[in-house]
Design brief:
With 225 residues, the chain is mainly beta. It has 2 helices and 17 strands. The strands form 3 sheets. Strands 1, 2, 3, 5, 6, 8, 14, 15 and 17 form a 9-stranded antiparallel sheet that branches. The chain has a 6-stranded mixed sheet with strand order 4-7-16-9-10-13. Strands 11-12 form a two-stranded antiparallel sheet. A hairpin with a 6-residue loop joins strand 11 and strand 12.
């Protein structure tokens, strides 16, 4: 069951009957999204919404969303997912990872690292397997954030060696051919009179990024581990 409105999509989870929501990119706060030099709004036939946000080029990536906790099903663990696709010229997301959080307004949120590029994340993992002495002896270099630009090891992207978070959540392909990456979880007991706040930021690396098309953020039930 699926209901669409201008900036949100509502459905019921097939297995549990719990509520699911998709916040369209237009319903999110995206820094510089009103500046055509950095972002542009385009139609994609595969999207459930009229427009998606396509990243032209930024070095400061900041996306925030919120939904009333009362809109979600009680006694339910929810996870939020950024739903996106990669366009031609996709680059700048291999390192550092973006930082995400999900939680109630006015409370401290647990933070996670995420990777948009599964292939890039695998390259970084393999690079870390090369012994330090070999990297130094053979001037080993890792593909960098600007396509043909490179960063010397150790310290990918100017970061000290050892700071790569190998537990970062990696984006996955969805059945509808979009990609998604989990941003975090929140448990709804019922009766919370506050917002669930969702954020994704990469504002520390200073790397230019491009080629990301964002459909929105999906909030759906997830089993607690």
């Amino acid at each position: 069951m699926l209901y669409d409105i201008a900036f949100q999509s509502f459905s019921l989870d097939k297995s549990s009957g719990k509520k699911c929501f998709m916040l369209a990119a237009r319903d999110l706060s995206i820094v510089w999204s009103d500046t055509p030099a950095y972002w542009k709004w385009i139609p994609l036939p595969e999207s459930r919404f009229n427009l998606v946000a396509e990243l032209v080029m930024v070095c400061w990536l900041e996306i925030r969303g919120a939904i009333k906790a009362s809109m979600l099903s009680p006694d339910t663990n929810y996870a939020a997912y950024l739903v996106f696709t990669r366009k031609s010229g996709f680059y700048g997301f291999d390192h550092p990872p973006a930082e995400t959080s999900v939680g109630f307004s006015g409370q401290e949120h647990k933070k996670h690292d995420v990777q948009f590029d599964p292939e890039g994340a695998e390259e970084i993992r393999r690079a870390r397997m090369v012994p330090r002495w070999m990297r130094r002896r053979f001037n080993f270099r890792q593909p960098g954030v600007m396509g043909e630009a490179y960063h010397h090891q150790p310290g990918i992207g100017g970061q000290p060696e050892g700071e790569i978070n190998t537990s970062a959540r990696i984006a996955k392909r969805r059945a509808d051919e979009w990609m998604e990456v989990e941003l975090g979880e929140v448990f709804i007991t019922g009766g919370e009179d506050m917002d669930v706040e969702i954020s994704l930021l990469e504002v520390k690396g200073g790397n230019w990024k491009s080629g990301l098309a964002i459909e929105g953020i999906e909030i759906r039930p997830k089993e607690r581990k």
